[in-house]
Here is the input.
Amino acid sequence: MPSSVFYRSFDRHNRGEGVNAHSTTYCPGCGHGLVQKYLAQAIDELGTQDRTVLISPVGCSVFMYYYFDVGNSQAAHGRAPAVAIGHKTANPGSIVIAYQGDGDLASIGLAEIVSTAQLGIPITVIFVNNAIYGMTGGQMAPTTLLGQHTTTTVEGRGLFAGRPLRMAEMIAGLDGSVYVERVALYDNRRRVHAKRAIKKALGLQVNGKGFAFIEVLSECPVHLGLDPEAAEDWVRDNMVPVFPLGVKKDITDGPNYPPIPSPRFDPDETLQAIGAGTTREARFAHGFAEHLDPEDISLKLAGAGGDGAQTAAMVIARAAINEGFDSTLIPSYGPESRGGTSYADVHVAKHQVLSPAAPRPHVLVAFNAPSLARFGPTVRTGGIVLYDSTVVHAVPSALAAGAIPVPVPLTGAAKDLGTPLVKNVVALGALQAVSKLLPEESFLTALRALLRDKPAMVPVNEEAFRLGAKLALEEH
Amino acid sequence: MTSSLTERPKPFLVPEYCKGCGRCIRSCVKDCFTLGAQINPETGLVPISLDLTNCNSCGLCIDACPEPYGLRLAGEGDEAAERPGHALELVAAPGGIPEPEPWPDQTVALPDRQPLFIKGTYAAALGALLAGCRHVFGYPITPSTEGAELMARVLPTLGGIFLQAVSEVATVNIMYGAGGAGKPCMTFTSSPGFSLMLEGISYMIGSEIPAVFVNVMRGGPGLGNIGPEQSDIKLACRGLGHGNTHAIVLAPASPQEMLDLTMLAFELAFKYRNPVVVLGDGYLGQMTGKVQLPKYMVVPGIPRWAVYGDRSHRGNLICSVELDPELLESHNFRLNEKYEQITSAEQRAELFWCNDADILLLACNTPSQIAKGAVKELRERGHRVGLLRPITLWPFPLDRFRGPLHRAKELVVVEASSGQLEDELRLALSHAGTPTPPRVTHVRRMGGILPSQSEIVDHVAKLEVVP
Here is the structure.
């Protein structure tokens, strides 16, 4: 009686016509059929048919979904372990089997099998190693033996074509695997072993243990140019010395793989996780700062990394949003943000920000001389150029005509407060005082919100803000 | 009941299911098997011949036979009925292939919340979470990384999974698995990473797997740079791997749209069983803006077609192989019908001040925001200018643009690429056989530089429009 895990009729095999309904696509004597019978039997005996997902590879066994009455997913060449991760994480209760040949697993799919084995996710990998490419017609495999003739090593595999790759040993050396065994099919005894190993590997997944890997030395009589009996002998005499049989790793008495989480969809929990607040902060503005622009005010804050330009920009934009206006913030980013110049473009619009860049800002806040030199000339007529007079001593000559310079000793003031880091808040206070972009309380509310997790920092920040305003008004 | 060796069943063989490999011969210590001599007319092969006189029912031959329906134990089925042509009668056996049960999506109302002030990549991540996505896979690449970082932080608090894959190639194939299992899944990537995913996207389209790819485009070709460029319009619209492939391509222009269109992307991906690409640019990805949350969130079910790994979905197959040329052709015809359905139903666009426009700008993503600034400035100077903003790049929303295009005399394509958007426009016009399209000129920047408002204004001011 064939195992019930095989379809009663292979309807996907040439529409199941005639003998196709009960015959595989494999050549006479091919080892794939044996491995798959053992696999079907293991699924049957473990009672996991309903929740099994079988990943078919590219290679001779590409059509496993013709035969196995389980959930079937057919993967791209070499990617079966990646596809298996997808299935296993999508449904941790599923039993996921990646079945791969030597070209698929040990050549094009090396990155996937190595990383998945290291990850250790509980899937079962069946690796069929027959030392040759079958489907494409007898080319060299990564496991082809030295001296072995293939259509791409016509004189026999030499060192120039590399040595055969021992996957079971490699996988056993990775931290994530819990069970690794190499088995063969060439006689009754080996077949009993192979059957037992496959069932054990699958059972480990059922018990949530971890990643299990069974390498099967298999026969490809057609491409070896041997009859099936001679092919069995060839595996025994030639492959086994290079690929020794046996258990390569067994740490199955260790702990189980950690449980794979199950998604939750509670609305409140979701909103909390994404940081959506319920409370509306108080509003203080009585209208848009039309004295700066009727619709859309742009600001540029520029300095060295660590000057706090980005944080100051964030306070302005949050304050504006809280007041019901639209706002955007564009940071300089990437390599630029790792040392060197750091700048941010901010827009505050009555209704909607259109272009988010600030090539010609209404307000420039420059924390150092290079920023002032670079962006000073771009400020529009009547605009405000606020700069740190602690570090910029000469009155800048490069300002656009009509721009109003506002020197404020930002660094000095922050040092006087004993907290050099707050010089950007000194700048915000000065900016608010001279521009009246938004009321003082709008800025302070946004600032407090930003410091929600550091309440001890609030007083010095508020002090810095007020000091900035005072200094700016004295100067201006 | 006791059983002796002789009472155990003996093997039997349907000769049509034997390929005559002879692996059973050496497995049998009683020499029951010999190589056959007669060709079976049904198969053209020579099955082994069987003489069970000495058989002790050890069963080792069955484990040596590579065929599922080859050597079997007698007496557990009606062997006589198991002949080619009679096989289908066995399908109706109890415990046959189950029918998938419906497991629909649900939408849950959300209370009003304060608008958030977040980056474009974060907004896309939140859109995915609210669309019911709890499976995110990816490989870090600037300027899309913040999306993945946010997911890595938030998903564990919602029972979700963020997994950093070994590469973009692995990423897309993990998505193939999770999407094939019927779960909403997504990735954040940027141009070079997107290139690596294209093969997998072709497989997903062939196998009809939904998934969402947020590609925050950057400067190319090659490693290029991490500045904003609209470098992948061609790839997303025309080059999704090998074969007959298309996917809906959404082009957000603000952090708000990064959220809204990512949510829409999941809806469309499952509606059409196809990947959807959300194509942002580096500027938009990094841009922080005001984002209003939607009024609902989605609790996803499991589609009937999914290979979920349970009894209900056991009969399903996710696969892009079809050896039969006629079947593969009809699969492609069916995909084409889907593409046509999408083209007629899913064109999305914004028309900005187009009603009386002589001059139309065409732009998407951040350049469209800059173009809006230019429209406003040009209007103030008395030019009758409007903006066509495609929100779907594929399908190109030509149907939405016909009216304004009919009236306009000039069309200026504004883009941060060497003409990839213009190519989509020209293809659409060509297919539609538009009789007299307006003259097409362009403002283009590349390398991480966006067209500036002043460049657009200067270009338009120089056009000589006859009133």
In short: Chain A has two domains: 14-250, 296-475. Residues 14-250 of chain A form a domain with the Rossmann fold fold (CATH 3.40.50.970). Confidence is low (pLDDT under 50) at residues 334-338 of chain A. Chain A touches chain B through 116 residues (CB under 8 Å).
